[in-house]
Amino acid sequence: MISNLSGREWITLTVLLVVLLGAAAGLVWTAIGLFRARSLIRREFSAYFLSPIAYVVLVVFLFVTGDLFANTLDLLTAKGPVGTESPMQTMFGAKLFWLVFLFIPPLLTMRLFAEERSSGTLEMLMTAPLRDWQVVLCKYLACLAFYTVLWLPTLLYLPALLGARMPLFHNAWTVTSLTFVAGLASVLVGLVMLLPHLGTTARLVSLALIVLGGMAAGIGGWLHYHAQGPHLIEVPVLLDPYPVLWTYAGMFLVGAMFLAIGLLISSLVRNQMVAAILALAVGLLFIGSGFWRPELVSSNLYNIVYFFSVPMHFERAFTRGLLDSQPIILYGSVALFCLFLTVRSLEARRWQ
Known about the structure:
By secondary structure, the chain is mainly α. It has 2 domains: 14-164 and 240-350, no CATH class; 167-234. The chain is built from 16 helices and no strands. It has helices at residues 7-36, 38-48, 52-77, 87-92, 95-109, 114-119, 121-126, 132-151, 158-162, 175-194, 200-225, 242-268, 272-287, 299-308, 310-316, 325-350. α8 (132-151) packs across α16.
């Protein structure tokens, strides 16, 4: 089949291969740089658990999502004409959710650089043996990690939203299932060992536990769930799982975009409240348009508003189990552009 390719197809395949190799090399280079600056990631991530604002954000977010989940569950179990065909659309299409979501990224990002500038520690950070892009990505990844932590408790809602039943089989212990469980335990122990400040030997041991445990869990889990007989956990899903999958993927991507916007604004101002207000104003451009119905005016205006309207992306695509490339391109391009401008902002400050 490859021998039948034309000259133009060979050129296209070669260019694609070069691009993929370049992207892989860039990812490896970035990963090495972030590994060398891992102490900054750990410091920024730990700072969220020492801030009362982060706990307020966590409590309010879980309260709102819990209330929306309870209302959605009532509609799923209601009798008569009342009900819902798309629980994810009912839960994450509510205006209350997006009004609360609008405040979360500004509150998480307002302190990242503004606090450093107001306290005078940014100059000290810039004299550290780190490049500007390492500082920006470390703060960004720490913030993105805490944003992910916000969503982890909501995974407990999924069995009810999907109509899943999770029976545990106590007679499903085999060599493959034991390998699967042992691998997961090894990964967990390795992650816990990364939290405290340990020596180099302990770090290498923790990394070895994560890598070997991940391999054991992957191989054991694949063999266990491809074998006949009862399994450790069986999840018979009664509803379509794709709306849940794409909704959570979309929430991660849109969060990455808003956090990058907030990070950029935090690097430009000195006051945390000013950074939060400006990030809130920019976020309102992407969320506030979702409460307007331009399809009642003209189709061209609707297409423009839809491209920038995050709530409409979830209402029309993600919560319905559809993967639209336009929102993904928007989220990724805006996030990368804001991160690039943040790096340039630090470089400009270095030469002042």
